[in-house]
Amino acid sequence: MTLTVAPSRPTTGSDFAILSRRITGAGLMRRRPAYYVARLSVVSLMLAGGWTAFFLIGSSWWQLVTAAFLAVTFTQVALVAHDLAHRQVFRTKRPSEIAGRIAGNLGVGMSYGWWMDKHTRHHNNPNHDDLDPDVAPEVLIWATESALGRRGLKGFITRHQAALFFPLLTLLAIDLKVSSVKALRGGVVKRRDLESALLVLHAVGYLAALFVVLSPLQAIAFLLLHQALFGVYLGMTFAPNHKGMPHPTGDEDFLRKQVLTSRNVRGGWLTDAALGGLNYQIEHHLFPGMPAPNLRKAQPIVRAHCAELGIAYEQTSLVASYRQALRHLHEVGAPARAAHARA
Questions:
Q1: How many C-beta atoms lie closer than 10 Å to residue 301's C-beta?
Q2: What is the C-alpha separation between 282 and 209, in angstroms, rounded?
């Protein structure tokens, strides 16, 4: 669906400026070093503990439990890399990039530079059919006009994409690695040699650990389960945020473009921890440099400001957010199903 704007008063450039002053005045853009020391420590301990358990357990089918734990851990590492990319942790570029490459390239095997470029373009134009890489017509189709004319396997996926959404997430971790390699080979990533070396080091260390410690069959099972669960969990942290929300035309101002294309997810501290703060997607898109623990505090300010302007502010439960995304996928695939039935 196309985003339409019907504010209760004329759109002005000052709307976001007023909100920004309120947020800054509340001190919500200040760094939270104690929080990130604690969070980085916990995630590092999870990563170290998971691999320590892996080596201590040795060749055993119980390692599938370790694979599941490390899938959760890898996702938490990726969420930390997300905060680093937005400079929520460090104020300056250099330490953010150093830590981001360690977390992304070395930690989980994903190019930090490639992902940062892709994610920046998403933030600049969320849900824009032509400018947001997250809704580009690839395996899944998010715009009806892109669903027609697809044949073979792609056509089958488009017709059944709602049902295939979660199964396809099992391939997300592999897709991130393949996309990282393509970006590095294409020369579109800064510090390509460094990022390539870190990715190779991750891949060699990861595969060596699996095939030295485990039997060949156990190693393959571990790899498949770990990467599949990593992909599902990572995909589930991002899926509720924009999928099924309106698509902008390019005529909206910054405030409305970010608010109307985003969806928040209700929940307490467990939801915050599981989704890395991305459940406050509206606040995050308006203030991407805001530390994650401040997003909850910013929410009532942003919501009240939107109410003053008559801007719709979408918030729902986690389950309902997935339901809306799946409903949108099903609706987008309807013309393709109708065309296939007539053929």
A1: 16
A2: 41
Contacts by residues 124-132 (CB-CB < 8 Å, ≥ 24 positions apart): 125/248, 125/257, 126/242, 126/248, 126/257, 126/258, 126/261, 126/262, 126/285, 127/3, 127/242, 127/245, 127/246, 127/247, 127/248, 127/261, 128/247, 128/248, 128/250, 129/247
Mean pLDDT of 179-205: 94
Neighbours of 161 (CB within 10 A): 22
Report how far residue 338's alpha carbon sits from residue 332's, in angstroms, rounded to the nearest whole number.
Answer: 11
| Dist CA 223 CA 214 (whole Å) | 11
Residue 6 has pLDDT above 50, yes or no: no
Cα–Cα distance for residue pair 39/117, rounded to 1 Å: 25
9 pLDDT higher than 80: no
**Cα–Cα dist 228/167, whole Å:** 9
**Residues forming a β-bridge with 315:** 264
For residue 20, the one-letter residue type is S
CA atoms within 13 A on the CB side of 248: 24
Mean pLDDT of the chain: 91
Dump strand ranges (E) for 169-322: 264-265, 315-316
Residue 290: both structure tokens together: 């805001």
User: CA–CA separation, 29 vs 284, rounded Å?
Assistant: 11
| Distance in angstroms (rounded) separating the CA atoms of residues 222 and 35 | 33
* Tokens coding 303: 């919501």
CA distance 63 to 69: 10
What are the strands, taking DSSP E only, across 194-334? 264-265, 315-316
Please list, in sequence order, all residues whose beta carbon lies within 8 angstroms of the beta carbon of residue 159, skipping any fewer than 6 positions away: 333, 336, 337, 340
The pTM (predicted TM-score) of the whole model is: 0.91
Alpha carbon distance, N-terminus to C-terminus of the chain: 27
Handedness of CA 11, 122, 240, 338 (dihedral sign): positive
